[in-house]
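chain below, 451 aa
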Amino acid sequence: MTIAPRTAALLEHRLATAQHDGRLPSVVAGLVRDGGLVWSGAAGTLDGRAGGEPADDDTQYRMGSITKTFVAVCVLRLRDAGRLDLTDRFEQHVPGSDLGPATLEQLLSHAAGAQAETNGPWWERTPGGDWDALAGSPVGRRFRQGRRFHYSNVGYGALGRLLEVHHGTSWSEVVRTELLEPLGMRRTTTRPSGRAAQGLAVHPFADVLLREPEHDGGAMAPAGQLWTTVADLARWATFLAGDTAGLLDAATLAEMCEPHHVVDEPGQPWTGAHGLGFQVWNVAGVRYAGHGGSMPGFLAGLRVRLDTGDGVVGMTNTTSSPALRALDDDLLSTLESEEPRTVTPWSATGDAGLLDLVGTWHWGASTTAATLRGGHLVLGEPGTGRGARFRPTGEDAWVGLDGYLTGEPLTVVRRPDGTVSHLDVASFRFTRTPYDPDADVPGGVDDLGWH
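prediction:
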């Protein structure tokens, strides 16, 4: 896809405006669609000074907590290979820490109750020790595991150690060989390499700068160590959009993007949740997945619309600013409004052999319509009541894909002559007439009938 010149100019202007109004030393951003980077831009200079070296799409920035998504994918690859289960306790794989009772699923989704930060000095600004030092500090839990969402950087330090125990090498080497190299992300590294931005803080009340330190986080590095470019981070966005290059099963990626634990902010509506490594947002009914990132001197963002695969990435070298999140939202909405996606023409691809399943059905005294859409049998309207799509799994066998009936079986029950008698949906009978006495309704139908 090629962005129209007018759209590109509009995106460049919005990027430049965000850099100026947000007082960002430099900022880079990119948009992805249909498996590729369709636009990228840069504004500002690497040192935040007039006449300094300009940022570009090959400039490295620290991605911060987006690092966690790479760690999580590597953990799920171990699960898919049969080497662990998400219900396993952490101590089954890494003994000797107070995090031992937590399950791997709880650590991945920040529901282990693990403390948010280390007990030592501000780990984001000081070099880190090894896992034994971190575990012996000791790290522990603030809440009973499984009770609630509680974001934990320490929990991802633990998951990084899990990768090391299983692979016999550093977590970063696991990420490099299993993900970065196969995806061609050659400019993503654990420390700045080549052209890289200086981490900076911008004074809240004056246009002056402070250099932020850069270091190796040690055992805490899996929580936020990686550096990357806008081009490389865009490749990770297309991975999240479904182009995994065979490195992760589509069903596993979907599982990672399910909302496992709601992010509950008192007094605020529930719009965010956390999956297995990825953050998930529900904005006016539209689902997004991705992750934010922050380390002293840097902010980063990754967000992909799950229904279309359109995504945005952005990075800046400042410690604190709301401008990047607002810019990411603005750029993605501009892409969607100025470059509407191509509409695939409708064509008749249905199976006429399934017509005996469509039409009006009754669940007790209620009425629902069955339709065939996109290869699915649809009862009612998905998202409303118990409406759901069903995917075929065999002859006269289907499985639910939505809401209450997700994962539940639908069986087409036929008469001896092959005609359809009724639908058995997770033991409920759907009949052509209300409480059809010939449809084996559980509990029977009163002999008096309707009266």
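The longest helix spans residues 5-21. The chain has a mean pLDDT of 95.
thats it, cya
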